[in-house]
Amino acid sequence: MEQILVNGAYLGAQYALIALGLTLIFALMNVMNFAHGQMYVLGGFVTYTIYGQLGMPYALALFVTAITLAVVGAVVEKFLFRPVIKRSQRDESTMLLAAGLGFFLDAVILLVFGEKQRGVPKLINGVFNWDFRVIMPYDRILIFALAVACIIGFMLFMQYSKTGRALRALAQDRDAAQLMGVDVDRYGMTGFALGAMLAGIVGGLLVTITGVNLGMGGPTSTKAFMMVMIGGAGVIPGAIFGGLILGFMESILLSTLASYGDITYLVIFVSLMIFLAIRPNGLMGKPWG
Amino acid sequence: MGLIIMQNKKILFTALFLIFVLVIIPSLIVMTSRWDLYYTLSSVALLAIASAGVWLTFYIGRINIGQGAFALVGGYVTAILITKAGFSFWLALPFSGLFAAFISVLIGLPILRLRGVYFAMITLVLTEVGRLSALALPITNGAKGISNIPLPGELSFAGITIIPDFASFENPRMAFYYLASVLMILCFATLYRLSNSRLGHLCRSMQQNEELTSSIGVNIAAIRIIIFALSSFMGGIGGSIFAVMSQSIYPSSFQVADSINFMLNCFLGGLGYVFGPMLGTVVLYFGWDLLFQTGKYQMLIYSSLLIISMLVLPNGLLSIRLSGRKKS
User: Fold this and answer.
1) Are residues B108 and B237 located together in one domain of the fold?
2) According to the model, what pLDDT value does residue B1 have?
3) What is the count of structural domains for chain B?
């Protein structure tokens, strides 16, 4: 049982970090970023190239990954999403753009990095073993700690920095924020860059454990959407809760339902639908996003 | 006077379109003997039917990424009815549509209260639920799916053959082409009629503001269910014919990517136009096929074109016509 809980916390921290980026982009731009999973994969490949191929230190690789993805996010917002949002009759048109962007990133990743599964050398060797009740490799513990540190850092940034305040104002009410003198365009771009950066960082963290391959993008996006829905779209603490809940559900159900065949995800999805039917805005979402 | 001219124009366009689909395309295929095109075009017609359903849900202001689930339901119901219960295809086809609609009413009752991204995401999850259920349920035969579905038999009424046995044709694909395109035309005619009816006006007002619509005394809950059921009916019909045409159905026949494609077809064609989904399906399907020759750059070019088309025409391909009309 302890093992299941530890696994859940480990998964949950990763998931929460992915969901944070997605929910941030949604809160600021009202964009459902279908390309989020691809951004995560791209982050994994950048880290793989710098740490695994070029042999640079891991910290540097993670830093470069964050910068690369932030630039990608900023460019995408400035040249793609902003013009389309301004000119389109309906908000939903950005979904086609986001899906197209997802395909595009997939294609770029395929051309640049190929379709093979890639892995990097382990960060630290060894396994933590508490009396055979909890067994956890040290590198997973490190990644877990880094993920938690990122989440806390992000929360503090949103809470106390000037940029964070501006972003929160923007998420609450775009017009009001603009009237208060917040440069909506600039902070929209910052927020998108930040969201993409978070996705990239998770990719960079997870590549050391699970490796990375092209096909991971789509399923990751779907999972991230679910976490965002559980917590409530556009709410930052909600995304963290959503990630943790999904992580724990996955680890608990995978072990308890193992004897009934491969129905874990069916159970998770169906219970999510029931939950949303009862509570349409998620745990702490605003009505109608 | 102007009205009559416009009506004549409409009749002319319809007639031209019918001749094009039912006479010119088949004769072109016969002339060039590209028999494989029958299969391709039938698939396009079926995808257009399913996309039309998605467009209908857009029409009441809901983003539907769950059409794949209903197409899967339609396909499986047909496959099970034909192979296990010995039904004729012509009975299984409407039954599949009705069953998909029935399921959609059950699911729609709670989830249609959701809006915006919430509805979009829950329907996305619904597609996954469809695929996973098909894998898990005993009747659907798991990952192996159901194969060897027989071709449609003959449809007769009071001893008169209305549609002959598909196996008796020299080329059953041609029969499928006619079946799919006729159904597609019927489906879009229904859509056109609906969008110009009282119900269509109500849908458009719901798209803009549901509270306001309901405050005037419109039963929005009922309309939502009706439209969603109709939409899923189309998905079920599309999936049903698809299963019989490919003579097999697997859990992966319709998955998240397909649901997203149905949605993209609508976006690309234009959400404000009844014939948007048809045009979007044709362009996306053939665009992808034509780019096949570019090899490994296929995806790159395809997605770049998608992004560019969105940048240049954010309101869909058919909005070119709209902007032209506004100027004049």
Assistant:
1) yes
2) 55
3) 2
For residue range B103-143, list pLDDT tens digits in order.
999 999 888 888 777 888 888 888 988 988 888 888 888 88
Closest residue on chain A to B305 (Cα)? A100
Residue B263 sits in which domain range?
36-327
- B63, A95: Cβ pair inside 8 Å? yes
Place of tokens 């639920």: B129
Residue-wise pLDDT tens digits, A226-266: 888 888 877 888 889 999 999 998 888 888 877 776 788 88
Is the domain of B212 the same as that of B321? yes
Q: Given an 8 Å threshold on Cβ–Cβ distance, is A222 in contact with B311? A: no
With a cut of 0.85, is the ipTM above it?
Answer: no
Q: CA dihedral defined by B59, B60, B62, B65, rounded to 10 degrees? A: -50
Closest CA to A289 of A92, A26, A82: A26
Shortest CB distance from A111 goes to which of B271, B296, B315? B296
Domain ranges of chain A: 12-214
Interface with chain A: mutation pick from B307, B319, B323, highest number of A CBs within 10 Å: B307
Mean pLDDT within A208-226: 85
Interface test with B, best of A31, A269, A288 (most B CBs within 10 A): A269
pLDDT per position as a tens digit, A143-169: 999 999 999 999 999 999 999 999 988
Q: B121 and B7 in one domain?
A: no
Sign for the CA dihedral angle at B5, B11, B12, B13 comes to positive
Q: In chain A, what residues touch B260 (CB-CB under 8 Å)?
A: 34, 99
| Whether residues B27 and B42 fall in one domain | no
DSSP B66-106: -HHHHHHHHHHHHHHHHHTS---HHHHHHHHHHHHHHHHHH
Give the model's confidence band at A281: pLDDT under 50 very low, under 70 low, under 90 confident, else very high: confident
Nearest to A93 among B124, B125, B267 (CB): B267
CA angle B171, B172, B173 (to 5 degrees): 90
pLDDT in tens, B161-187: 777 777 777 778 888 888 899 999 999
Residue of A nearest to B127 (CA): A269
The span from the CA of B298 to the CA of A42, in Å, is: 19
